[in-house]
Amino acid sequence: MPWKFENGSPIYKQLVHRIKTMIAAGTYSADEKMPSVREMAVITGVNPNTMQRAFAELEQEGLLYSRRTSGRFVTGEEKILKDLRERLAYEEISRLFDELEKLGMSDDEIRQSVAKWREEPDGND
Questions:
Q1: pTM for the structure as a whole
Q2: What residue ranges do the domains of the chain occupy?
Q3: What is the pLDDT of residues 66-114, one digit of tens each?
Q4: Checking phi first, is residue 97 left (phi over 0); if not, alpha (psi -120 to 50) or beta?
Q5: What does CATH list as the number for 11-76?
Q6: Is residue 55 within 8 Å of residue 48, measured between CB atoms?
């Protein structure tokens, strides 16, 4: 089933973000071979040129590397992968704080709410 995309942001940027998230989450592991551009285009429901652009950006950022005639692979460099996870986490935390501040919550209220949520035993782990 093709991926769903939001309006307002270029599709290749959305692809880059989602693939980064999948790499950070371990869906694609260090040194794992990625599907080909054509395979990923079919999986995601986008034009192969769009997927090529996304892969090129991921390669430029050091998250993917190419082996001639073998395809693209996820980096095996732990520092790059650790930095990716930290950057994605920071972005999510920033979004959360922005949304809760719009509700009128202070930083302390937000921190207290997060701590309370984390302590609740109803599956918040």
A1: 0.83
A2: 11-76, 79-119
A3: 998 899 999 999 999 999 999 999 999 999 999 999 999 999 999 999 9
A4: alpha
A5: 1.10.10.10
A6: no
